[in-house]
Amino acid sequence: MSIKIRGSVWLLAATALAVPGMVQARPTSREAALEARLQRLEAEMTQLRADLKSARDEQAVHADQAIAVRQTAEQAQAQALVATRTAEAAATKSDEATAKATALADAAPKQGFRSGNSNVVLSGYIKLLASSARYSGGDDPSNSLGRDLYLPQSIPVFNPASPTSPTRVTDFTAKQTRFWVDANTKLGSHALKAYIEFDFQAAPGTPQALGQGTQRTTNAYDLAMRRAFVQFDRWMFGQEFTNFSNPAVYPESTDYVGGVDGLIFVRQPMVRYSLPLDKGLTLHLAAENPETASATAGAAALIENGEDHAPDFTARLEYAGKFGFLDVAALGRQLRVDNARTGLAHISDSRVGWGISTTGKIFLNEKHTSDIRFQATYGEGIGRYLGLNFSPDTVLQANGQLGSVRNLALFGSGRFALNDQWRVNLIGSFQRVSYASYLNRTTAGIAMYNRQAWSIAGNVFYSPVKNVDLGVEYRHGDRRLVNDLNGHVDRLDFAAKYSF
To answer: Kind and range of the H or E element at 29?
Structure first.
């Protein structure tokens, strides 16, 4: 198109040069043709200019359309980004709303009832225990504590000088039935808790009167307090399991305790303070009720002296997390006997008792249905804390001085969930008592004192529905005295429990 325009321009220029000479002449036919041709060229040039303008206008329109399309695409992309961010914000708000709803659901009482600004829960369980025990030499008296539960110090020992045939006994009891009241109150930023718990097993087992607490007729037993305390923020006042141990280590068992030989098991009044040190790390300090359980040389019976001057002090450092928990505990106490006079002689003496212990529970799965539990304890003058007072804290000698008694106790158990309904527990427990070498080991001394106890047990629990547990357990326990007389028991238990 540009070549044609240039040719037309040169032609017009040549024609313009020739025109002045021909102005005066009369146009010829050739000139007329040339003029007509020139007019056509001018028309073509005008048309070419119009076409060029039209092409440029069309190109501009296309460019504007491209820009508009690009702008539309950019706007769509921006709108999509805004929509994505809006969706993300909505999802975040939804998650926050879900979290708040979950928190509110967790904060709401799942059971119990409201009383003022307190949430009160009444709970407990009904438990039947049927047991059959075979003793190697003799048996426990009827209605005794050793018949209701595994108690190593109650195992009859076998004396070769006067052999006794093995005996078998069978008992049914519902004494382990338990009931508790738990009240929690929010007072501004403070937390207040009150708790009281009862059962029928802790009451004295001796029948009160004919028809009361006898197996012959009513089997009526007294309700006894197990635990009763008030907790205000970090402080706790009342009766609770000793701070020297963590009761969460106790195994799942048909028995009242389960593997008590090597376990710390004491409930007593105390004042306790809990101090958080770091995430998952807490220090528990307590001053607890003192009581020296002594024995007199020549007699194995334990005596509650009631002459203590200072409380028992305990400290427990606990680290808890998703893995479970680990505890290290220490005990310091004064042992004191000041309760007898012989003529003009006043029998009185005291000594220091101490103990250290480590306790733990390690979860084996994410659901926390399977775990390993353990406890190891060593100390002097801690007999009443171990194995339901398997040994004395100290021995009162004929000279009025207190002899030392040391204890080593080991416990371990494994809980293995087979599924949501079936689980298996394996339990092992051991305690060894060491008496000072200067104590007389003859019949007139400590020959009949407990020296060692151990037991192994295995059970299977089945929960056909929620809150119902059915269990079968076998246990073998052994007791040995300082003079090496020993006895053992094989015990088969069946337990049915409904928790509410």
So the answer is: helix 29-107
Q: Is-contact 153 387, C-beta < 8 A?
A: yes
Residue 103 lies in a domain: no
**Dihedral sign computed on CA atoms, order 20, 24, 30, 36:** positive
Residues of the chain falling short of pLDDT 50: 1-25, 104-105, 207-211
CA atoms within 13 Å, Cβ hemisphere of 3: 0
Q: Is 258 helix (H, G, I), strand (E, B) or coil?
A: coil
Its domain, for residue 60, covers: 2-88
- Report if residue 387 sits inside a domain: yes
Burial class (CB in 10 A: 0-12, 13-18, 19+), 41: middle
Nearest to 417 by CA among 380, 368, 377: 368
> Would you call 403 helix, strand, or coil by DSSP?
strand
3-state secondary structure 141-200: CCCCHHHHCCCHHHCCCECCCCCCCEEEEEEEECCCCEEEEEEEEEECCEEEEEEEEEEC
Instruction: Kindly state the helix (H) or strand (E) to which residue 101 belongs, with its residue range.
Output: helix 29-107
Q: Are residues 277 and 337 in the same domain?
A: yes
Query: Is residue 73 located within the same domain as residue 125?
Result: no
Question: DSSP character for 221?
Answer: -
Structure tokens at 16: 């313009």
Domain contains 93: no
- Listing DSSP states for 418-439 in one string gives SSSSEEEEEEEEEEEEEE-TTS
Q: Does residue 326 sit in the same domain as residue 243?
A: yes
| pLDDT tens per residue, range 259-295 | 999 999 999 999 999 999 999 999 999 999 999 999 9
CATH of the domain at 216: 2.40.160.10
The predicted structure's pLDDT at residue 362 = 98
Q: What is the pLDDT of residues 183-232, one digit of tens each?
A: 999 888 999 999 999 999 987 655 444 445 678 888 888 899 999 999 99
Task: Examine the domain organization and report whether 168 and 82 are in the same domain.
Answer: no
Round the average pLDDT of the chain to a whole number and report it. Answer: 86
